[in-house]
Amino acid sequence: MRRTTKYPVSGANSLWQIYKTVSFWKVLKNVIVIQIGRYTPFLAVKNWLYRTFLRMKIGEKTALAFMVMPDIMFPEKIQIGRNCIIGYNTTILAHEYLIDEYRLGDVIIGDEVMIGANSTVLPGVVIGDRAVVAAGTVVHKDVPAGAFVAGNPMRIIYTKEEMERRKGHSNE
Question: Looking at per-residue confidence, does 86 or 161 come out higher?
Answer without folding.
Answer: 86
